[in-house]
Structure formats: C-alpha cells, structure tokens
Amino acid sequence: MALDAELLSQIGLWAAAVLTLVTLSYAIGDHPIFRTVLYLFIGVAAGYAAAVALQDVVLPHLVYPLLDEIAGTSSMDVMELGVRAGLSLLLLAKLSPRTARLGNPVTALLAGIGAALAIGGAVQGTILPQIGAAAGIFDVSALDLALQGGYYGESIQIIFDGSIVLLATVSTLAYFHFGAASRGKQEPLRSIFIDALAWVGSIFIAIALAALFSGVLLAALGALIERVVFLQDAALLLPGVP
Amino acid sequence: MSYHSAQNPEDDLPDWLRALRKRQEQESTDSSESEDASGDSTDPAEEPEPAQDPDWLSEIRLRYQRGKEPAEAAAEEGHLDDTKPRRLRAMGNALAPGELEPPADQEDSGPARLRGGDKSVQQEEAQLPPENFFEESATPSRTPAFSEDEPSITPGELPGWLQALRPGDFPKEDSRSEEMLPGSAEGGPLAGLSDVLPADPSITQVETAPVFSSRLEITENQGLHAAAFTKLLREVEGPPEDEARRVARPKRVLNIGIAAVLFLSVLFPLLTRSQSAVRPDPQFFPETTSVYSMIDVLPAGAPVLVAFEVQPALFGEMAPLVSVVFAHLLERQANLVFISTRPAGPALAERLLQVQFAASPAVATGTYTQLGYLSGGMAALRSFIADPRSAVLSTASVDDPWQSPTLEPVRQLFDFALILVVSSSAEDGRAWIEQSADLLPGGLAGVTSAQASPLLRVYLHSKPQTLHGLVSGLQGAALYERLRGQETGLGRTYWDAYSYGLGAIVLMILLGGLYGRLIKLKPEKPAAAEVQRGA
Amino acid sequence: MNLRVATPLAAAVAVAAGVFILVSLFVPGLEDLRNRILNWAILMAALALLLGMLNLFSVHFEKIRNRQQPVYSAVLIIAMLATFGITAWEGSQGVISTWIFNNIEVPIEASLMAVLAISLTLAAVRLLQNRKDLMSIVFAVTLFILLLGSGPLFGIELPFFTSGLGPYVNGILSTGAMRGLLIGVALGTMLTGLRILIAADRPYGG
After folding, report:
1. Can you spell out the DSSP letters for C169-201?
2. ipTM of the modeled complex
3. pTM
4. Could you say which DSSP state residue B108 is in?
5. Is C189 within a domain?
6. What is the domain extent for residue C202?
7. pLDDT at B204 (0 to 100)
C-alpha cells in the first residue's frame, strides 16, 4: 500500500519536531526519554551507514562482478575478482573470535596503506608547505618592492607580522619539546632557552585553543538557530494553526 | 652390650653395674641384719671395690636433696614409698638426705626437672634399674643377665618393678602427670584407662562446637586509631552527597538559565523578522572574495567537483553558506559533480538540492551527477584523486556516471574546472588538501563550517599554496550574500538571530565571570576546593 | 592457513603494502598497481563498516540477554535492523530511507549540536571561576576578542573588533600558533606511520 506523500511528510514533520524537542531537553537534564532517543539515533545512523556502504561500494565492487562472473558476463579480471573475494573472506573471518586472526593480514593491509598515505600527505601536504610559508613571510623581493615604493609603514608591518607568526610557530613547537640533557644523578632539565621559548609558546597555544573554541561555539550557535527556525516552521505548519 | 652367656656372669657386667650390685647387697645386709655383709665374701667372684656413683647420678641425688626439706623429702619419700617400687624405695632409703639436693646456686635456675624436684627424680628413678634389681638378682646376679637356657621370668609372674612400670601402676601422686591428666580418660578410645595422656580433643569432643560471638572486640586504643583513620578518609573523599547535590543545584539552574536566554535571544529576531544587523565587510575577508572570484569566472557548463563532506550535525549551520555558493554555481551554469567520503554526504547534498533548489532548472532536470559514497578515508581519497574513473566503478547493474555528458571529458582530477571541498570538519578538509597537494597545482577552494576555519585558514598562506580560497560559517554566508548583492536568503534570515545570540553569549560570559569573581558563588567553592584537593 | 602463521604474515603485509604505497608516491610508473591496491582498500573499508554494524548488533544483543538496560539495546537493534533493511532494499535515494534519514537522523544529530552551544556557553561562563592562571586568562581574553569580532552584538557592530583586532588575532596570532600545531601534528603522524611501516606498532592485531 503506497503511503500518501502528504501524510508521510506530515508524520515526518511531527517526528522530527518531537525528536528535536526531546533532544534539546537535555539542557535541563538527562532523562530516560532522551536516552531512548539517543539509542534510536545510534541505531539509525549505524544501519544507514552500513547500508550505504553496501549499496555504493560492496555491491558494485564485489557482489555484482561475482554475479556477472557466475552468469558468464565477466566484467572484471578473474584474478582481480579472486583477490577481492579472497580478501573479503579473510576479513569476514573476523566475525568469530576463533578465526579472527585470519583477518589480521587484511587489517594489516589497511593499516599499512593508511600509514603510508598519512606519511605522504603529512610531508607533501603540510610539513613542506607550512615550512615554506613560515620562511616565505620574509619575502625579500616583496620587501624590496615595498621599500622602493616608499611603503615604509607597510614594510615594517610585514616584518613585524612575519616575526610574530614565526615566533608563534617556533615557540609552539618548542612547547612540545621534552628532550633534556642528562645531568648524571640529577633530574634532567630543559635548557633555559627552550623553557623560555616554551613559556611564550604556551601563550600562543592558549590563543589558538581560544580560536578553536570560538569556532566550535559559533558553529553550535548556527546549529541552534537552524533548529529554532525548524521548530518555528513546524509550529506554523501544525494542523489548525493559521 | 653383647648378650652372651659367660661362665662368670659378673665378669661381663659393666663396672658401674657391678658396683651398684655390691652396694645394694651391702645395704640390704645392713638394713635387714646387723651382721656384717662381709660374709658375702664367699662370693666366688672377686668383687671389686664399690665404685663411686657416676657423676650424673650423684648430681641428681644432690639436687634432689637440696630441693626438698629433709622432713618433707622424707614425708614425700614415705608417701611415695607406698607406691614406689620396692627397689626404688630401698634405693631412696639408702640415699643420704642431702645427697640429692641440688646446688644452691642452681636452685632457681634451669628447668624444673633439673632442680631436683621430686617429680623429675621420680621419673629418673623410674628410669633407673630397680633398686633391688640387683638384690633380687643377687641370687639371680649369680645367674647370667640373660640366659638362653632357662627363662628368668616365670610366665605370668612379672617382677615387681616391671609391674610398677606398667601404666596402671604409675604413681598417682605425680603432680606433673596430674597436670597432664586433668582427669581420667572418661570417654573416647582411651576410656577406662587412668593416668593416660589426654587424647586429641578433636576425637574425644562429642558436644557441639561453641558459638563464638561475631562482635569485634577491640581495645580502647584500637578504637581511637580507627576513629582517627575514618576522619582522615572523610577529608580525602569527595563532598558528602547532600553537599554534592547543593553544588549541582545551582549548576543545573545556571544550565537552564543559559538555555533559556540563548533560546529567547535567537527566537526574538526570528519572530520579529528583524534584518537590521549589518553584514560583514568583504574587504576584511580576502579569502572569501577569492572563492567568489573563482566561481565568478567559471565558463558555462564547466564541471565542478563538489566534495560534500558534511555531517548531519552541522548541516543546519552550513545550509545558508552552501545554499548561496551553490546558487552562485548554478547561476554560472556549472555542472555539479558530487562525491563524499562520508556515508551521509550524498544524502545531505541531495536534500539540500531538493529543498533549496527544487525550482532550479539544473536540479529539476537532474543535470547534476552523484558519484556516491567512497569508503576508505585517505585511501579512497588518494585513489580517487589519482584516478577518478577507477575509484568509482560501475557495472551493467549500475548506471555508469562517467558516460554522462558532464563527465565524459574528465579523465583526471585536474580536468575539473574547480574543486570545491564542502567540509564541516577540519580533518576532512585537511585530508583533501594533503592528498591532492602534489596532484593539483591549481589547489582547492574551501566552503567550511566555522569550527573548521581556524585550522584550515593556515593553508591559505602555504607555499606552495594548496588552498586558494575559504569561506566559512554563518558569517561567510552573510558575507557571500553581500558580495552577490542578495538582500534575501538564509544567510540574511539567520544573521540577526546570530547577532543576538552572539550578544547573549558575550554578555553571559562577562556577567558570569564577574559574578563568580566578585560575588563569590558559595556552592562552587567547595566543589572547586574538592577538585583541587583531588587533583 | 595456520593461525600462528597469520601473525608474522600480517606484519609482513603491512610493511610491504605501506612501503610500496610510499615509494609509489614519489617514483613514477607504479600508479596502476598502487591504484589497484587502493581499490582493494576501499572495498575492505566498506566491508569493515558492515562488520562494525554486526559487532554493534552482537554487543547489544548480549546486553538484552544479560538484562543490562535491555530496553535501550532493543530500541537500538530494532532501529538499526529496520534502517539497514529498508535502505539496503530501496537504496539511499528511496522514499522510506530518505524519510528515515531526513526525519530521524538529521534532526537528532542537529539538535545534539545545538545543545552543545548551551554546554560550551556554560563552560565559557565558568572558565575563570575554576582556574586563574596565565593560560586561562589569555584564553578568556582571546575568546572575548574573537567573539566580539565575529559579528555585531544585538545588531550593533563594533568596528574595532570586527574590522581590526578580530581579524588580526585570527590572521596573525592564531595562524602562527596553528601552523606550529599543524607541523607538530604532521610530524607526529609521520612518526606514527613510520612505526607501523617498520612493524614497531601493530594495531592490526599482529
């Protein structure tokens, strides 16, 4: 029996409104209805993610090629298909504690690939470009142009800002430097220079953490505004309300 | 000692035994007759001179004599004489009164048995050969101590000393044995026997075991120590339950208060449809202007890859920003191609398009492409960035998106006119930037949530530049709408609510901090103190 | 396969795959094999997601059997199975699956984020009450400046913050510190990855 689209939409609106109000009521305190809604959310999210993975990846990458191979309309190299099927079976062995070890090579494959990509991305995508940025602030050619044009104030501003950014970068890294020279039987201590730099770094880290905190707070405020707008619209769309 | 018959039995006896016999004979002769026992000299064997007592024996005798008063000793001896074997009695009478007294300096030292107590002497005497052993055996002394020819003991007739040694004849006056024997064995396997060592209580005890009290018996000192320890523990533990509730009550009130203020401050401008708040000035946000510029120069029909890495949690916050950017893209007639490494990404993109752009021709006619979901995180990203066509497979069962007119000319990722990373988290944005750094010289443009902006902003200044533009949050939505000259839109609708909510937050932080510092909110201090002590 | 052989084999697979992928990033000519391996990883990751769902099911099923909050676990299992079944049958673009996603998952998740606004505001209000050291003071002052520079308050704009101090803190002070943090994170990521590639760390159960 096909459900009426309008009715489905109305039921959906009610459900969303009720669930929103129950979840927002957590501001008052924890209660069993909120917990029930939370468990409902976890179940729905897990089921949805698994179904999408099945639909978008497992079926087209494994099941359909296997069926095509069985049906005789091969769409993938047999060796490739065999490797995929074999890896899949090994990974499925993880379901049972007795055979879980058989799946270790597959998880090792994922771990090794992830580690290699993380290294490559970190080096090429972050370390080299960011070090280049830290050094490129003191662009000699840009400063030369600025001085030639008589922009002395801007030149000083560039140098000053660049120094601050460089100091912030270096001192932040120094904050996490925990190496210290051995002093025999005495407790090892960092050098005074590193300690001073680390102290400066702690101030910049506090600034960075405040920036992150403000970002999350503003994002949450945006989410709150959207939910209030939704409740307002839902209230207006309730039957009987003009 | 070798037992063998000898023609002269006396020759085989040890010297001390021979002397003892001699003495006993002399004593018995003296005690029974006044005649001189020298007539015994007809004894064929040459009797040696009576040897002196061994040292240990004389010592015992001396200790015994010293340990008791002569009368007492005599009385005891007399009492004991009644039960003591005859030989021992005779022996005791022969002893000089002072011979067994222990040395004066040893009277109170050493174990009792060495102090010449009559008990030890009795036992030691009991161990000695009987007194008239040699007397009776005087006649028998002439007979060998051991003879194989004829038995020295008539069957059934035991000599007196042996009878005395039997358990039944043990002198009852032995106080030591009385201590050891609280009473005769009245029950158990030794029933009927007197003067026996007590049996193990576990086998003689027949009554039920006593019930011991479970009450802990402690001394006063122990009680004081326990009280001090309990007090110490109470100081270390957290606040009592009622105090914890007292701390929690104002915190809960504060929570409700903040929620109410925020809710009302956001609701008020929405209800009044206020649009008075000034939108931000684009000149202070060059990174946003860059994104605008990149989209504004797109030719019609240009394929634009949209990496939709949005979480449902922040979809509401990003909806105004994504709407205005998509509106700009659709206005430029860009062909949108969606992909996501998040399971909910494709569905959220679809929802946004259907809700906000249902009337748009591109959306209405479906001239956008959904490549779907790519699992695997960085591996999927790298695979897709390196070779988009192989990462997203298609078979006869699924429509091949790469055969569509939009994607037909796209072979590599840099064939897209623009790559837009729409991300609600900094990690997703960073993953795209890092994995595409070496393959995309043109870089990316970012449309992000406000929470991702601080971290991704850093990539705007990297060398080589990996992020060419960034617009974020509700502020970015309002800014972008201002750049496009829009007076309506979700950004404009939300901006006043955002302004009032921001003001409420700043005011609450300011007042809350002042209130806590100046007025000193009492219930917080014990909790803070407890936390510090615990830390 | 002998289960005991699986342990060193897993380490060998991790090292070999990781080294090959790393080398192929810098050495041309290995792209085809690399992409093939990466496609295997895509498939395995999706299967791992399915296994995760099964594991979640078994954990909560055990909780129902042991009567540990059985109602909550029953709600979770029913919701999970219903959503999985409907979405797998219809597809993510189906009517019912879309309805479930739009009217259950999105509202709850968005509302949870909205509640975070209240919690974070409460945390900011109590910030200086609990700690009074230099770092917390710098944190509070910076937070104040950034919030004031994020937009007008009650419709009133403060140009000194929105156009001056706010962008300066965001663009200069915060950027420098973030750069240091990012470099540190990248170095840590590199180190962790290298430990996996030399089999010093074996998070895969080897």
Report:
1. IIIIIHHHHHHHHHHHHHHHHHHHHHHHHTTS-
2. 0.89
3. 0.72
4. S
5. yes
6. 131-206
7. 61
